[in-house]
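Fold this sequence, please.
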Amino acid sequence: MLAMTSHGLYCPTGDFYIDPSRGVERAVVTHAHSDHARRGSKLYYCAASGEGLLRGRLGAQIAVRPFKFGEPFELGGVRVSFHPAGHILGSAQVRLEREGRVWAVSGDFKREPDPTCEPFELVRCDVFITEATFGTPGFRWDKAADLGGQIRDWWRENAARGANSVLFAYSLGKTQRVLGLLRPYARSAVYCHPAASALTDCYRKEGIALAQTRCLSALAPGSRLRGELVIGPQSLLESEYAAFLGDDFETAFASGWMARGPGGYGRGFLLSDHADWDDLVLTARETGARTVYVLHRGEGALVRHLRSLGIDAWPINQLGAGADQLSLL
């Protein structure tokens, strides 16, 4: 059904790629993050709720065919459908069926509740291709943690002494998730980097409720913030917007990598949009797949552990012999 090529996952029967690494004729895209959605393809297929984000990232004029979750469509004799991955808004797993055999490609996924995207849906399959960004036992999340409340408390503590709170978060997905978690708590607008503003508007257009925001670019030159929460990429402190912060501010980073500690940041919030070790293992087992291929950390702990459970697990580079020649036919 699928082979790993230099362009990415390729389906020779349907003649399409999933999350190709460069422009192709037909790209089935799991979500709008830049390591999955790339410019240059002639036609994109995606989940309907992610279309706005995909156009926002790749250009409004790209050719897109959106489909509702669970709505099947045919590509060269392969029955394809999108199913929620729980990663960000519109993120999808790709289900492929042909002659009674089912493959599923997880894309990036998480299983804990998130107010800003569709909840993960388990896809039963014969062969499962899973991400493994955090595919070692050291990465486990407290899924009951009130992270919105934790961020609110940190913001309040800093504001009490007049300091700004700078929370580093990725512009797509993480920023909006933080805003969703803060909606019950935020008593004033959260300042956001311009890189996230249009993306945040896409979320609101899909009916996602977020905390009130203001864009840093709307501030008048010479303005100084005091006691505010600012969300932006790590490059924020090296940009023109750093002048709005003054000299008194605290930093934090919201990421799954904070499982290793805050590093050079004042505070770390363990907030991941990827499955942790426990959910990677659980999902591989619950799909019922007899064979599992692992992306990202495929040579390591997850492959070995799944094999110990009796699952035929392999790193993704073992998928499809002679795959590059096959994709050019």
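The two ends are 15 Å apart (CA to CA). Helices lie at 51-58, 147-160, 174-182, 194-205, 277-286, 301-308, 323-327.
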